[in-house]
Amino acid sequence: MIADIHTHIGEDKDHTGQSVEQLKRNMKKEGISKAVIFPFNEPTKDLMKASFDLLKHKDRTIFPFLRFSPKRHKPEAVRKALRENEFSGVKLHPFSQNFNPSNRRYFPFYRAIEDEGVPLLFHTLGDLDRTNPYNVARLGKQFKDLTFILAHFAGFSGRAIAEVGKRDNMYVETSVISTPRVIELVTERIGADKIIFGSDSPYSDQMLEILTVKRAKISKKDKDKILYRNFAKVLGI
């Protein structure tokens, strides 16, 4: 089986957009059995409200993550949203929401997510001040009961990947930056148990992202972990 932990839903003026119905059609085409969904970054919309709108799609195949802006929302609102609704996790994008994740003022958000027992998917690619993957990876030491997933292979940062390898509560996600060789190198360095497949669809293509894993020279057992088993473990399904 294949599960995708990184899928955008909604209308995006700069891209074609993607509805849940379109996603499901593509999942069927590519043999994907489960997918995490969350809203596009649309500056004029309330990301938390947009996340609530996706909850109606939750079923055995679709797992909505909560998305919000730490500068717009409060930790208690996040805690309440997670406690009273069936979100499967949280997605944070420090570049789009313009915040430094290592700033202590945002720690109450991580504590709320940790207390509610859901994983946190962090964008870690691009702007080094806000999306520095090593700074995000270091949070795993302080929030030991919070599961962190560093998107885009932690920017293929050697320091960040090494830090992920030290922590039982940390994973990297494969989308955009991976190649079969990157899959091989990171598997060799920290093990397939620490890698979760994601596509960043529709910014990237699900079929191509799957092929980066399938064409990697690693064992079938390791490919199964990356493409499904680690996803199932993190989401508790």
Count of the domains: 1
- The poorly predicted ranges are none
**Residue-averaged pLDDT, rounded?**
94
In N-to-C order, the SSE pattern is EHEHEHEHEHHEHEHEHH
Structural class: alpha/beta
Assembly type: single chain
- Summarize the biggest pleated sheet: 8 strands, parallel
Percent of residues in helices comes to 40-55%
- Strand line-up in the sheet with most strands: 1-2-3-4-5-6-7-8
Net shape: globular
Report on this structure.
The chain is of the alpha/beta class and 237 residues long. The chain has one domain (3-235): Metal-dependent hydrolases (TIM Barrel, Alpha-Beta Barrel), CATH 3.20.20.140. Helix content is 41%, strand content 15%. It is built from ten helices and eight strands. It has helices at residues 20-30, 47-54, 75-84, 107-116, 128-131, 133-142, 158-166, 180-190, 206-214, 220-235; strands spanning 3-9, 34-39, 62-67, 89-92, 120-122, 148-150, 170-173, 195-196. Strands 1-2-3-4-5-6-7-8 form an eight-stranded parallel β-sheet. Strand 1 (3-9), helix 1 (20-30) and strand 2 (34-39) form a beta-alpha-beta unit. Helix 3 runs parallel beside helix 4 and helix 6 runs parallel beside helix 7. The longest helix has 16 residues, at 220-235. It starts with a strand and ends with a helix.
